[in-house]
Design goal:
The chain is an alpha/beta fold. The protein folds into two domains: 117 residues, Alpha-Beta Complex (Aspartate Aminotransferase, domain 1); 211 residues, Aspartate Aminotransferase, domain 2. It has 13 helices and eleven strands. Strand 3, helix 5 and strand 4 form a beta-alpha-beta unit. The radius of gyration is 21 Å and the shape is globular. The mean pLDDT is 96. The structure holds pyridoxal-5'-phosphate.
Length: 357
């Protein structure tokens, strides 16, 4: 007999990308930043006194929230700090969606969303993206018809990397009957002209997710945050969040990371340059690759091969990329942008696989 709730017993958990211990394996599978975190973080860790850990950390991460608020030109009451962006997603669901109520998203989307919906025992409506990886014009209508309470929309899209303009985001948020969680996990690698944050002042149903995992090279830290109107942020801070959800060290490191904007910006520029160079090389090899505004590329493999066979071959050559055995994605590989040297290695191995098979 299982003691799990029925929906938990029936569900499969989230399957993370492989995280091998072996440092000789080239990891281009989980969208980590190939450049190290800001040097000021290493300096702080060298000076860090463990005495601080005797006491509980600041409960609301106020210092971090002030810094994030200044960075985005909002008030600290508009910011919630969370254990990775993933905790914000969970909080949005547990705070605003009753079990049994409908959650909405696109198809494809970030594969954690359906898992979180299942945990809360909520059904989920997937609206297929158009051929150019954008929500269809009828997106909000379809979700309203399904009585969706919370929509989870990732922009730039994962796994395609395609960015939807702010105007379309605004139109979607305005026409939805429920709340929109705009997941901007990868937005720092997008065009500078894109900025959805001012929308939170005009719209009462929009929360934006940010994370330090990708843009600030801190996936191992587990720190993200939400930006939204106070009436949506406050209940999560005051009621549904775990008390002391962020430890001392995370709070300190995250504050430094946001303050070191100059350093972070340099890594984004390098990733963007490498992304565009890698895309050109993949196109030359016969892959189809939409224009990405993130730190990864979604590459449709040449018809002569299957994506799975190339994934397996690369793995045998110690290179990990992501293969999703799902409708619409099974002929594609998602490839994280590495350093110039790492990308060169990938292209060399891909060329040899395409010739030899
Ligand atoms: C689309 C998307 N949203 C949110 C996240 C959450 O990231 P984290 O929990 O590391 O902040 C990820 C991580 O892979 C992601 O791909």
């Amino acid at each position: 007999m299982s003691w799990e709730r029925k929906n938990i017993a029936a569900m499969q958990g989230y399957i993370s990308g492989e995280q091998p211990d072996d440092p000789s394996i080239l990891k281009l599978n989980t969208n980590e930043n190939p450049y190290p975190p800001a040097p000021a973080i290493e300096e702080m860790l060298q000076r860090f006194s463990s005495e601080v850990l005797r006491q509980y950390p600041p409960p609301n991460a106020d210092e971090f929230r002030e810094i994030a608020a200044t960075l985005h030109d909002v008030e600290s009451g508009n910011i919630i700090a969370t254990r990775g962006g993933d905790e914000l997603l969970r909080l949005m669901i547990t705070t605003f969606v009753d079990p049994g109520e409908m959650i909405g998203t696109t198809q494809p989307t970030y594969s954690l969303y359906p898992v979180l919906a299942q945990i809360q025992n909520c059904p989920i409506t997937h609206v297929p993206l158009t051929a150019d990886w954008k929500p269809p014009e009828s997106f909000s209508d379809q979700l309203n018809d399904a009585d969706v309470k919370l929509t989870l929309l990732v922009n730039p899209n994962a796994p395609s990397g395609v960015l939807v303009e702010v105007e379309q985001i605004e139109q979607i948020a305005r026409s939805l009957n429920g709340i929109l969680l705009l997941d901007e996990a990868y937005v720092d690698f997008a065009d500078n002209s894109y900025d959805a944050i001012p929308l939170i002042e005009e719209l009462d149903n929009l929360v934006i997710l940010r994370t330090l995992s990708k843009a600030y090279s801190l996936a191992g830290l587990r720190l993200g945050y939400g930006i939204g109107p106070e009436h949506l942020i406050r209940p999560m801070i005051e009621k549904t969040r775990d008390s002391y959800n962020l430890d001392w060290i995370s709070q300190k490191i995250a504050s430094i990371a946001l303050e070191e904007q100059g350093y972070a910006n340099q890594t984004w520029l390098r990733v963007i340059q490498e992304r565009d160079a890698l895309r050109t090389e993949l196109l030359k090899l016969g892959f189809l690759v939409p224009n990405s505004q993130t730190n990864f590329l979604l590459a449709t493999v040449p018809k002569t091969h299957t994506a799975e066979s190339i994934y397996v071959e690369l793995k045998q050559r110690n290179i990990l990329v992501r293969f999703f055995d799902q409708v619409g994605l099974s002929d594609k590989l998602r490839i994280t942008i590495g350093t110039a040297e790492q990308n060169h290695k990938l292209i060399t191995e891909l060329s040899s696989i395409l010739i030899s098979q």
